[in-house]
Amino acid sequence: MVACLSKNSATKTATSVLNGVNSLFGGNKVNRLEKENAQLHREVEDLNDQIESLRTDKQKLKDNHARELNRTNEQHQQEVGNLKRILDKAYRWFPSFKRFLNMERECLDCGFSEVQTDELKHGQVVIYSGWLHSNEYRRNALADNVTAQVIRDEKRNLFLYINETPIAQWFKEQFGLGQSETQSKGIKL
What we know:
Blueprint: H1 2-24, H2 27-93, H3 95-110, H4 114-121, E1 126-134, E2 139-152, E3 158-162, E4 165-166, H5 167-174, H6 177-188
Antiparallel strand pairs: 1-2, 2-3, 3-4
């Protein structure tokens, strides 16, 4: 037992001496740095937790956005379907409605303004100067002070005329296509 007490006393004495030496050589500095290091480790863990929380929040936002986008797309598709059904009914109830829409598209595609197109759909004569586009030939033709009019035939079909000539024929003449066909037919006879 006396040997144990002397060992404990020797250990305590050695620890005291070591603490004294540590204090002489900056032992308190080591303790302070260890505490700061522990504090920094806690801060890193807190930041890692915050990063993980932000990642989770970001994923939730992505999921919510995807759900909302799907819901909006479904609503849009329903609305488009409803509009298509309404248009189909309008086409059945008012057969000339579709003809007017097609004529409007043709006039706009040719290069007439919306105001000019409205005038043409109402049967008015429009004086036009500028370029007219042919979707069939994928070319433009210069129209200098021409008269344009939409004419309805006996079946109530609508046709666009330029200088009292159907527009398809007018484009052929502008591109020199009608003459070569006539000449080639003349040679065959």
